[in-house]
Specification:
Strand content: under 5%
CATH architecture: Alpha/alpha barrel
Distance between the termini: 38 Å
Strand order of the largest sheet: 1-2-3
Number of helices: 20
Number of strands: 7
Structural class: mainly alpha
Order of helices and strands: HHHEHHEHEHHHHHHHHEEHEEHHHHH
Number of domains: 1
Helix content: 40-55%
Length: about 500
Amino acid sequence: MARNALSSPGNVPALRVLILFLLLLPFHSIAARHDYHDALRKSILFFEGQRSGRLPPDQRVRWRKDSALHDGATAGLDLTGGYYDAGDNIKFGFPMAFTTTMLSWSVIDFGRTMGPELRNAVKAVKWGSDYLLKVTAVPDVVFVQVGDAYSDHNCWERPEDMDTLRTVYKIDRDHPGSDVAGETAAALAAASIVFRSRDPGYSNLLLNRAVRVFEFADRHRGAYSSSLRSAVCPFYCDVNGYQDELLWAAAWLHKASRRREYREYIAKNEVILRAGDTINEFGWDNKHAGINVLISKEVLRGRAEYFSSFQHNADGFICSLLPGNSHPQVQYSPGGLIFKAGGSNMQHVTSLSFLLLSYSNYLSHANKVVPCGETTATPALLKRLAKRQVDYILGDNPLGMSYMVGYGARYPQRIHHRGSSLPSVLAHPAHIACKAGSRYFLSPNPNPNLLVGAVVGGPNSSDYFPDSRPYFQESEPTTYINAPLVGLLAFFSAHP
């Protein structure tokens, strides 16, 4: 009788409340108490396993060694360093810049709760920002990729053995890429805030470079996948357009510099650059929800009433994520995981959860809530939603599996990652050629090297996870999954 009443059209609000209640429950009747600080430490350690270039003396992931030491040589430049984006050996500038932005935002908003891990988080930011300074050293040019993705993906070899093409790809005045240049400017500006008090000289260098790169992005408009389609598509093809990255960069430059010109740019271009579009999206390709949440902080503090439309957009984004009230493009698995169509679902889980938590904090300080029809999104509710996603990643899910390598009793053993799946240089000093690595890729054995802290793409919409290297959409880790997770884990390590 009650079930029929709840499912009738006249009781949709009651159904939504029930769904919300059920999805906020821990999956197990007695939830595991997670060690969020241990997970935080491991989530940051992961970035050391993704480093390219000459590794520093304090490198903690010891099975990794120097790699790609001649990157940029074909262009007469030093483009060594930076991060491999995922389980391959390419340096893709678009996701690397977004990773750096999100690591910086994690430190800016949640660094005070990182404890001793703050030092390592700042190092992770600097490994990215140092590289972004290299690729933007030439005015009106951004080197956006090192390595040919097709030749790289045709091999299964360690980064230390790499003998595939290390082609350098760039954007310039005649071949624009406002999306990747805008994200690079945002990353440099965000990192400048991280180093403002720690290293003022370095911070100024980052901010000045961000200004220059943004001017280039704005003056020479276009999508980088139009200029470099054969190199960047279908890997990190921009399907969302470059407009959001221009607003995103301006928002970070305003936050970093407090200059009126960026405030005026945002106000002038809000409609032209479609600030309110696809507000339920946030990731390396789509910054809309992030723009609205970032700018709303100023509005909620009473400092920027002229940006109230951004808060309205952010409120709409929040409502679109509520279980039972969610947007058609945002669903929840039976076990309670945010799920969006496409590969590497955990990138959506961590990025959207980061915004839920950040907005929750901004609302708390302003003593505000978000009305969502029959439901009221309080700061406490948003924190619980974000925490539920983090707990799912750490093991509160139907399979009882942590999706972070090295955390918990059960985690993925066969991740889609070359360096992790092949014998280390220490264990196997001889060169492993391009096709010689195939037997390791196809092996049913666990990876010999533990990439501690790596969070994989995750289970499908039915909470099923194939722990198998060929299933790359589920088993491949990426830097842009982990970057927003760093901030989430920092907060919950202090507020479990």
